[in-house]
Write the structure tokens for this entry.
Amino acid sequence: MVRVINFFCVALMGLTILALYHVSERTRDARLELARVNHEITRQHSDIAVLETEWQHVAAPGRIQQLAEAHLGMSDNASAQLSSFDMLPRRGDAAALNNTPLRNANAVLPANPPGATAAVSTITTPASGM
Amino acid sequence: MREAPTLYQRRIVIGAGICVIAFALVGIRLVHVSLLKGWDAGRAHAPIVARADLTDRNGELLARDLPVKDLYARPKFFADPAGAAEGLAAATGASARRLEKAFRTAKHAYVLVARQITPDDEAKVMQLGLPGLEFEPSAKRYYPDGRTAAQVTGVTDLDNNGISGLELGLQPEIHAAAARGHERGQVATSIDMRVQYILAHELEQARQTFTAKAAGGIVMDVKTGEILGMVSLPDFDPNQRGLAPGDSRRNIMAQDVYELGSVFKIFSFTMALDDHTLNLNEVFPINRDYKVGRYTIHEAERMPATLAARDVLAQSSNIGTSQIVLRSGAQVQRAFLDHMGLLKPVETDLPESARPLYPAIKNWGQIETATIGFGQGISVSPLSFVTAAAEVVNGGRRITPTFLRQNGKDRRGEQVISHETSVKMRDLLRYVVTSGSGKKADIEGYDVGGKTGSAQVPGPNGRYLPRALRTSFFAVFPAHQPRYIVYVLMDQPHGTKATAGFALAGWTAAPAAGRVIERIAPLLGVPKQSEPTRLARDTTQQQDGAQPVSASESP
């Protein structure tokens, strides 16, 4: 009986050693994989950081303005180009905007802008101008 | 009586004990491997970033650390040190002579070849096929917007330590943000890059148009104290270590002090209104020459024989202003300017600051009181001026400028002047723009208030330079409910054909400030078609242009 128990214990120990070795190996593999993934994440973060910086560089206001002026014939006459929805007349308003002229986008276009048709200037609301 | 265990029984007990110990060890190891060790096995590599990003108030990048590498060489591996030095110099831009000398006389195993080399340079180095090279990961600070905010953001040195601007001033915050967690930290500044760009663009254009030596501008929120834009020209490229010809790292808006001229009349009127020594309806005689002791104060341009108090400010009369400040006297004036924070350096997140220059108490006599009243004889930094002027228009409460985003938090402190005085000053400033020297800054719909200043420029010997002006314009909008200040300064602008040769602030600085307001107001959500102020409604048309100031010793 004692021999059986001894044999069982030794066998169990052997099996446990094997299982432990297996777990240890899997852990080592997982650790390597994790390190690789972490390294990849770090690299990707670095790449993203570089790309974000590059984007910031190419999308800088000065660069956009240069391109808009060179290729779109736009100017920086901003206050007349920007408005809010509140200023738009509603259907049925008798005297929208208190009869004040509604200024539309008025980018000054070059003489022969590519694909452009005409410059848009100040227009009046139907209630006040017609 | 129990029998003693036999030999076999003892062996069994010992064997069982060994098995138990072995199992215990295995169990401990199992727990260690599967549970405890697993937590630190996948710890992320320490990021290269040593400094957090600097962003503007909308999250746009101002400065970021980019991964680069430092290149080291082990000269003992080089068969031909001279050839290696030449090749490495060509690839990295380092000095071939320095490298060759370092390779031949190296006392240590490693020689630093170049720092912060880019991936392109790294590829060139790798193509050389040299042995004994090592790349050490490092970081280089990069400023994607280049010159636009260079003076404010400042720069770092090769060791990534801030040496100027917010890089130095916000260094503790930048390091703290970088140390928080694995993610890239950020420090949000108060700068709005859209405003910053517009300010820089308009100032550069104005500087070129009027061939000014230098120019600068500040945009500030009067309630939060946030600086939305600060420009100082000439500027520099923060991505380059050296300076190009004509560039300057000096932030003239924070580091330099100037006699700002007639914009200082704002404080004279504020003082008089707050002390109730001035009634806006009273009329002042404007003599041709006004004697103060043995000095004569005179106007640079012809003035009417009399001016109402508000027109003294609108037409920028030195004589009228002198009469007003002399009612209060030197002591009150000094105490008032001190109370407004104009007699000490302004404290901000910027490390750059300047100590104001003003007469000692014993030398602060009548003539000094009069000249300081119209902005001569006292020199303050533009940032200091803007801070005090913000207190005049923001309801009369203390404000400290900041370069950190405040998320709309009202940071106004204690009452510095009465609210009533502040409201009167807003009306007066609006009146200056509608009927005085600041007409060219009047942008339709934005209710701009402001004041011109055309100061003479002192030369090296202390005397004022002939025909040299330092012009500035202080603008607040909307004047009836102030939200933002725009301040523009131009150093020695020259008149053009379009200005009929005039280089006064009304012709140079005021239009530039107006253009800035016109462009930034829609972006900042300031509603157009603001209600005009009381004084603006009954304005009368008067002549353009500001008055340069001067006080000279009578012969």
Observations:
- Residues 75-129 of chain A form one domain.
- Chain A has four helices and no strands.
